[in-house]
Amino acid sequence: MKLTIETPEVFEPLLAPARYKGAYGGRGSGKSHFFGELWLEENIAEKLDCVCLRETLKSLEFSVKKLLESKIERFNAGSYFEVQDRRILSKQGGVTIFEGMQNHTADSIKSLEGFDRAWFEEAQNASDKSLTLLRPTIRKPGSQLWFGWNPQFETDPVDVLLRGSELPPHAVVVRANYMDNPFPPAELLEEMQYDQRRDPDKYAHVWLGEYQRNSEARVFRNWTVEEFDSPTGAHHRLGADWGFSVDPTCLIRCHIDGRKLYVDYEAYMVGCEIVNTPELFMAVPDSEKWIITADSARPETINHMQKHGFPKIVAAIKGAKSLEEGVEFLKSFDIVVHPRCKHLIDELTLYSYKTDPLTGKVMPLLEDKHNHVIDALRYACEGARRVSVRKEKPVIVRNRIPTRNGAGWMT
Q1: CA triplet 129, 133, 135: central angle to 5 degrees?
Q2: Alpha carbon distances (Å) from 404 to 400, 401, 411
Q3: pLDDT by residue (tens digit) across 192-239?
Q4: How far is residue 25's CA from residue 175's CA, in Å, rounded to a whole number?
Q5: pLDDT digits (tens, 9 = 90+) for 268-289
Q6: Which of 118, 241, 306, 389 is the most buried (most CB within 10 A)?
Q7: Structural domain boundaries, residue 203
Q8: Could you give the CA distance from residue 145 to residue 151 in angstroms, rounded to a whole number?
Q9: What is the pTM of this model?
Q10: 3-class DSSP state for residue 252?
Q11: How many domains, the chain?
Q12: Please, is 61 exposed, middle or buried when counting C-beta atoms within 10 Å of its C-beta (0-12, 13-18, 19+)?
């Protein structure tokens, strides 16, 4: 079969044989699509055993399997592959599997020793333990390790390995951003331009692949991204924040289990008209059945929502220090965020305290940006926070005992 694949020029160095192939940068660069098409081309040409990895993988829904299936369909290569539930077989006799490195031990990783390719997606999340296990395991002659990632910190293990002062032997690493992608969808460019206008730091980190700035000023460090299913009977807490002009309207759903706060769904839209808000909120399962605590700054919007399918929506009770106390309440939990809540992940990454412009030192003042979904999360947990505050207030117990002569009370 003869394939015609148009490869962006930025990825050309990765077409030559190399032990390590790395592509890093911001969103919209086409990194995953390049590796997906390289996988297709190689597996049509020869027998290869491939493993597609993420640090954590509890469901194939969040692997690159769907991407590979779409490449097979797009290039009309169905006769060369058999797509099964958990793997893809090639006509040449190879197999492609999908796994999470976090599930592997020094013993279990040996099952990958004979593999020809290991493709690590979202490699910014790769732990040092995972890379230490993986690198010597994929050792078949001619084998390759592919890494695609959006940088977070200079100290992340994949950056130390592939962007450090000394690269491993036979490594080719390229930087790719949205401007290197000749096929960017219009919706992607609109998102990029929105961030570029409003937040240069976020634009540099998310779209240009720069390292995250002001890490010491980050508000939230108590969170992880993890796939999970909310248990039957969970007490869902929902919060809403309203958009103003270019700000987003958003809804978040979460539940509390002990000291963990699980966030499983979000709805998010910039420029959402009030008449479209009920439809937006319906994207969160059962949102009309639960109490939604919403920003009290827009009573007319709350009233509209009550009349259009959300009778249980109520206004948040803000009060003095409600912002600071709400943030501290969220920081008291281990927050677990489902991968589909992409905007909350962005905000938890970038939400920060202000820094002194003269000294660069962090001040105890919250920046008023990267906080729309976080505000919704604060509102969702408002009731739980107020109950917690009442429980923690000291109670004075006065034991009043009559004196022996009944002349008065002794306290």
Answers
A1: 115
A2: 13, 9, 13
A3: 888 777 677 778 888 999 887 656 788 998 888 888 999 999 999 999
A4: 5
A5: 999 899 999 999 999 999 999 9
A6: 241
A7: 186-213
A8: 18
A9: 0.64
A10: strand
A11: 3
A12: exposed
